[in-house]
Automatic annotation (TrEMBL):
Protein name: Four helix bundle protein
Organism expressing this protein natively: Flavobacterium yafengii
Superkingdom of origin organism: Bacteria
SUPFAM superfamilies, sorted: IVS-encoded protein-like (SSF158446)
NCBIfam families linked to this entry: four helix bundle protein
Length: 65
């Protein structure tokens, strides 16, 4: 799902960049640091989209924080 929100576009690009950068991490970190960094960065655009889809402003704000 895509969004017209500029912040989502920036977060999505950051996610792509982090995945590219973490490809260079040591193989020994594949299931440790690499996985943790990728999961945390990918949650940012996901939370933005999820918050945007909420009906109430309070829920919307909760996903941004």
């Amino acid at each position: 799902m895509e969004s017209n929100l500029e912040v989502w576009k920036l977060a999505h690009q950051l996610t792509i960049d982090v995945y590219r950068i973490t490809q260079g991490f040591p193989k020994a970190e594949q299931f440790g640091l690499t996985s943790q960094v990728r999961r945390s960065i990918s949650s940012v655009p996901t939370n933005i989209i999820e918050g945007q889809a909420r009906q109430y402003k309070k829920e919307f704000i909760q996903f941004y924080t």
